[in-house]
Amino acid sequence: MTADELIIATCLKAGKIMVENGSEISRVDDTMMRIAQNAGVVSANTYVTITGVMMSIQGRNATQIAAINQRTIDLEKVAQVNQLSRQFADTKIDLTTLYERLNQIDAASRSFPLWLQLVGAALVSGPLMIMFRQEVINTWPTVVIGTLGYLVFYLLNRYLKIKFLSELMAALLIGFGAEWACQIGWGTNVNDIIIGALMPLVPGVPLTNAVRDTLAGNFVSGPARGVEAMLSAAALGFGIAMVITLF
Amino acid sequence: MAVVGQLALAYIAVLGFGLIINIPHQALNVAGWIGTLTWGGYLIVQAFDGGVVLGSLIGSVGIGVLSSLAARYKKMPAIIFNIPSLVSFVPGSQAYQMVRNFALGNYRQAVSFTLQVVMITGAIALGFLLAELLNRLITFCTLRWRY
């Protein structure tokens, strides 16, 4: 690989990891430009969208594209790329090491195991139900159904790889679970249980990034993320609406 | 007592959402505190009958400013702090009532809840915009003050 090719490959790798794991576009742009500048390129051009990253070095025949086919949410990887970029800026590591480290980060699987995510889902659903509805009678059904709903979402999303379908199925399970819990007398209020149990599935990252990207002037990626968030919300809504009309 | 309970619950909920979206371990505690402080701000607005929309606006301004400060202090991206802290401001209850009333055919109530959801979401977005302005101002002032 020539020097130019290595610089572009490193920048694209960094950009690809960041977009794939839920960073906002302006940060990706900024990181790529910084890596290029610290590697000695004065006039680089980057073009970042949520489905692909492009970069070229002005005046030299070097342009490459990296396509982004699937996005997950793992903000630890975003922080790690950020950290590496800072180390490279302080000349603690050189370009080759940076490229190798980025490849390692890309290949690594999620560092938070599934059980910890389930604990997270339980911690989100119960407390938010109490905060929103000011009652504690339905806490345990909410925690259990919320955790189960997140588990179903996680497993389906892992094997089917269709996010919206997984959300729909999880919402259906949450709705039926809540109805069932009330019918056997475990819970008292279906609405409260459903509200709490749905909270771990709220599309928080796409929603926040949609606002941030649009405000930063990225009119391609911002609205696209907005559509992603709306589709997730609609999938959850349809699932719940189906259960409500059935009972 | 209820207020202390609410603040503790806000901390726990932010921690939980941080675990779901996998933010670095060192950031969990700070994100939780941001969530607690801003929920405190929201509760103060509620105590003065300010309404949910104003409360969400104040809360999201607080989240934006505090996350940016935390990002500078911890040397991590700001989204690591502001996405989990926002979870308690999501209009989940109103959004659910909206879907429920649409499904049951109570369109008048459904539209009313839709408007509430739109207004709260708009307030949060506006809050981020104001926070961005404040952040730029803080950066500008610290630079002036230093040199």
Account of the protein in words:
The complex is a heterodimer of chains A (247) and B (147). In chain A, strand 1 (44-49) and strand 2 (52-57) form a beta hairpin. Chain A folds into two domains: 3-107; 114-246, no CATH class. Chain A has a three-stranded antiparallel sheet with strand order 1-2-3, covered by helices on one side. Chain A has ten helices and three strands. Chain A is mainly alpha-helical. Chain B is mainly alpha-helical and 147 residues long. Chain B has one domain (2-146). Chain B starts with a helix and ends with a helix. At the A-B interface, helix 3, helix 5, helix 8, helix 9 and helix 10 of A face helix 1, helix 4, helix 5 and helix 6 of B.
Radius of gyration of chain B: 17 Å
Annotation, overall tally of beta strands of chain B: 0
- Taken from the alpha-carbon principal axes, the silhouette of chain B is globular
* Backbone structural class of chain A: mainly alpha
- Work out the oligomeric state of the chains in this entry: heterodimer
How helical, in percent, are the residues of chain B? Answer: over 70%
User: Which value, in Å, is the CA radius of gyration of chain A?
Assistant: 22 Å
List the helices and strands and how they pair.
The complex is a heterodimer of chains A (247) and B (147).
Chain A: H1 3-20, H2 25-38, E1 44-49, E2 52-57, E3 62-67, H3 75-89, H4 95-107, H5 114-133, H6 139-160, H7 163-183, H8 190-198, H9 204-215, H10 221-246
Antiparallel strand pairs in A: 1-2, 2-3
Chain B: H1 2-20, H2 25-47, H3 51-74, H4 79-85, H5 92-104, H6 107-146
Helix pairs in contact in B: 1-2, 1-4, 2-3, 2-4, 3-4, 3-6, 5-6
